[in-house]
Amino acid sequence: MEFLSIKELHHTYFTRSSATTALSDITLDVKEGEFISFLGPSGCGKTTLLSIIAGLIEPTSGNVLLENKPVKTSQNDIGYMLQQDYLFPWKTIEENIQLGHKINGNLTKETKRTTVSLLEQMGLNDVESFYPKQLSGGMRQRVALVRTLATEPKLLMLDEPFSALDFQTKLKLEDLVSNTLKNFNKTAILVTHDIGEAIAMSDRIVLFSPSPGRVHKTFLVPEDLKALPPFKARNHQSYTELFQTIWKELESLDKE
């Protein structure tokens, strides 16, 4: 049994005057602890697929199972991290990271201690009483990651979480997020337009073709790259070779 199983997924958006098929015949399996990236041109349905896996959208047909259960019944086991941090500006950092526990009715002295400890692990010491506006963009994204991890989700969905950051901060966060997810043995799916980011962070890269979105090709990241943190992986020879291979595939999709 696979940890996450997507079978014959199809999704069409309907309006009064039109029907647009976003995804067609998507079948994928993800192992526990695996880091997968969804890569592809704009309009290939990556974010739609992420929303379906998260249980936010009901697919037109097909199914998604998390540990052999429909994702609609497993939403508390799924964490979602987006481009924007979506921290509540009127709440302190401590209040923001404890929001999931509060909503679920699990806010105790122990969970409070655990979330503050997560902040410290992210290099955010003594910021609990701060408000989001007092932190940099990179720090806020680290807070958003803490908030996502605080409820101990089994599956993390990362929808271009670094795209709004400057390049230096992005590289630092890639290392931090990758190391954190490995330490917690989390399963993660990243949606990105950045080939380099996908290679540096992933175990496997799924390339989608557009209109409608289909699985075009899957790339396995070499073991020597997976063993390295993202920043070091970017300087490895295997990284350059895989980058060129994926780039050519993307170019071929543009010509279709």
Quick gist of this model?
It holds the Pfam family ABC_tran. With 256 residues, the protein is α/β, with parallel strands linked by helices.
Give a count of the beta strands, DSSP E runs of length 2 or more.
10
In CATH, the homologous superfamily of the largest domain goes by the name: P-loop containing nucleotide triphosphate hydrolases
CATH architecture of the largest domain: 3-Layer(aba) Sandwich
Order of helices and strands: EEEHEEEHHHHEHEHEEHHH
Average pLDDT, all residues = 89
Overall tally of domains = 2
Radius of gyration: 19 Å
State the strand order across the main sheet.
Answer: 6-7-8-3-9-10
The biggest beta sheet is recorded as:
6 strands, mixed
CATH class of the largest domain, named Alpha Beta
In helices, the fraction of residues equals 25-40%
Strand content: 25-35%
Look at the helices and sheets and give the structural class. Answer: alpha/beta
Terminal CA distance reads: 36 Å
Which fold does the CATH topology of the largest domain refer to?
Answer: Rossmann fold
Low-confidence stretches: none
Inertia-based shape:
globular
Helical stretch tally: 10
